[in-house]
Amino acid sequence: MTIAADTANPRRPFLTVLAVFGGVGIVATIGYFLLASFLHGVASVPPAAASVAAYVACAVFSYWGHRRLSFASGGAHAVQVPRFVASTTLGLAVATATPLAADAAGLAPVAGYALVCLLVPALNFVLLSRWVFRTEAASAESLLPALPAGERLPIVLGVIATACLALFLQAFLWPMNADTSWLMTVFDRMHAGDRLYVDVIENNTPISVWVYAPPMELSYLTGLRAETLVNAYTLLVCLLGSGLTAWMARAGNLLSTRASAWMLLLLFFCGAVLSGNIFSERDHLGAVLFLPLPVLAAWRLSGSASRPGVRHWLVAGFAGGILAMFKPYYALLTLAAALYVVARRRDWRLLFLPEYLLAGALSAAYMGFFYLAYPAYFADLLPLLRETYLAFAWPFPLLARVALSSALIPAVYLLLRRRLGKSELSHILMLVSLVAFLPYFIQGKGWPYHLYAAIYLGSAAIVVMLCGSLTAERARAFNTREAVMLALVAVLGAHTRFMPADLSLARMANEVKSDISAPTMGVIGGNIATAFPFARMVDGRWSEPHCSDWIGVYALRMAGLAESAGNQAQATHFLHILDGYLAGKRERMAADPPEILLVEKDNDSVRIFLDRYGFAAFLENYTRLTGNADFDVYRRRATAGGPD
User: Fold this and answer.
1) Half-sphere exposure of 546 toward its Cβ, with a 13 Å CA cutoff?
2) Percent of the chain whose pLDDT exceeds 70
3) At what angle do helices 331-345 and 354-373 cross, to 10 degrees?
């Protein structure tokens, strides 16, 4: 008995398809080796460039070979090329992440490589046979190929223009945000042999670092600047999230092909350009990838004749799981979507739909692995986080005032809904947007990027309403221009909090780089933005285990709150934490003083560190080099004993 391997040629035996698939893969691998060797050895192309050129050339061969030989597919290139690129990218991500996970689990490096040799070919075979080169029902779910040629070109050009604009703005207006810059530094330290949560301390779970593995590993391979690759990678994530959302909406007949294509472009613009200075944040990546889950929830309630397949709930389940892995608070969004479906259908069993089970299973498996692989986090860091960073929160009225401008989105949504009528999809997106405000208040820090998920999902609700309703009969009585203007006011107004730019960093970085090359660096201050991205902009080597003195700052704040409440014993406890942290910092700085020291300005905690804990004495050995409104940059003076 033979097994049909693909719908394009159902009579081909499974073993034949598998053998041809393996043959194409082997030829591509040998071709890569020979071409890279020729380019480097004969044509004198640098090794990194030779490797990339050979890889791209062999990827083109792989596409042709698998399309024509392995699976004999006759599908449209416009459908299959993007799918092939996505599957290849996923394979690279698995190949990058598997050795990292194996190392974290304490396995030998060879075990990680062996797993890659098993997982990546198997994953590629499944994706290529069941998705990339499968033509069955492709026309029903395709977007751009189904559009008339006159409408297809504006979408494609719009995506390209959006990507170029986003890269330009990130390169010249918004340097890499502080959190991403620090996590890239953590990855560099791990790549050099440091142990996560032991030698280099990151407050968040390990996926916060792993998510940047593909561009970081590619930077090591090619020598290209890591920040450039992370920006390009983030754009791909934004396009992936927007594309999967539009694909899901089209497959479920929630929107027309035309409306889905324009929704893709507008969501991509919101995620890629309007994200501003939080571009590439974990909250940013998680929010743009989450959208397929509420779309599938709307599909479940729509009464559409088409039914979701395995590929649909796999995408939606992954979307919910990845967001909760970034921050457990965001599991509330998946729960909200699930409970809405249950309430509408009045059937509690719908809580166990496969997408929700998958999202929960992924999150649980991840947390279990995290607990087993990184015991130091739970034994040492988590108790400290609970007492200091997690325990401190702004007063609710202040948090609410910061979030006030975000209320534009639900207000305009309600106005448009009365005029245009609601759709199930836009309604669920607005519901999860409102629920996304809960993590902002739970975290209680008032930082703008904690509002990003709520703002982006609310913007998606308005985009869906415009794309899906402006061609409807009811919309004809409502001025289209007025609807668009209201939407722009809401979406742009809410995103303005992500727009501020600090142009002084580039000037200061040039001043430091003209004075010293690749300096060791340290910080006195509790704000991560004091050191990052500035440390990476000057090609600095970060010498401290922490991104900032957050332990000391939060311990001092909690001690002050305890004293105000009359709890002297608790205040003494927090001062003991402060003393221990600063004693260790003084010891590190005395043993290996950094060449560049960054000192946060206008901070009461920093003034106490300098005046009461002896750090002013360290500054006597430094000369101020430059600075801005937020921090000063000090250069260590040359010593008589040798070079500085």
Assistant:
1) 20
2) 86
3) 160
The DSSP H or E segment spanning 524 is strand 520-524
Q: How far apart are CA 406 and CA 454, in angstroms?
A: 8
Which residues lie across from 523 on neighbouring strands? 598
Cα(535)–Cα(524) distance, integer angstroms: 13
Q: What is the pTM of this model?
A: 0.82
CA atoms within 13 A on the CB side of 261: 21
pLDDT tens for residues 97-144? 677 666 666 666 666 666 667 777 777 787 787 778 776 544 455 555
Q: DSSP 3-state helix, strand, coil percentages of the chain (rounded to 5)?
A: 70, 5, 25
> Following CA atoms 455, 456, 461, 463 in sequence, which dihedral angle do they give, to the nearest 10 degrees?
120
Q: How many angstroms separate the CA atoms of 253 and 141, rounded?
A: 9
Region 585-596 average pLDDT: 93
pLDDT given at position 605: 92
387, pLDDT greater than 70: yes
Residues in a beta bridge with 624: 634
Measuring CA to CA, which residue among 383, 392, 328 is closest to residue 360?
328
Over the range 41-56, which residues count as b (16 or more CB within 10 Å of their CB) and which as e? eeeebeebebbbbbbe
Radius of gyration of the chain from its Cα atoms, rounded to whole angstroms? 27
Render pLDDT for 532-570 as a digit per residue (tens, 0 to 9): 999 999 999 999 999 999 999 999 999 999 999 999 999
Boundaries of every domain in the chain: 141-195+203-497, 505-636
CA distance 386 to 380: 11
Task: Please name the residues in contact with 337: beta carbons below 8 A apart, sequence gap of 6 or more.
Answer: 293, 294, 297, 320, 428, 431, 432
pLDDT at residue 11, as a whole number: 54
Tell me the three-class secondary structure of 301-344, residue by residue. HHCCCCCCCHHHHHHHHHHHHHHHHHCHHHHHHHHHHHHHHHHH
More confident residue, 4 or 348: 348
Average pLDDT in the 22-42 region? 73
Cα–Cα dist 644/639, whole Å: 6
pLDDT tens-digit profile of 172-195? 899 899 999 999 999 999 999 999
Which pair of tokens denotes residue 367? 């947390």
Amino acid at 269: F
Give the pLDDT confidence score for residue 363 in this predicted structure.
Answer: 93
Peptide bond into 519 cis (omega under 30): no
Residue 163, CA distances (Å) to 232, 282, 463, 532, 599 in order: 9, 19, 19, 25, 36
Please spell the DSSP secondary structure of 211-268, one letter per residue.
TTHHHHHHHHHH---HHHHHHHHHHHHHHHHHHHHHHHHHHTTSS-HHHHHHHHHHHH
- Give the integer Cα–Cα distance in Å for 300 and 307: 8
Determine the pLDDT at residue 6: 40
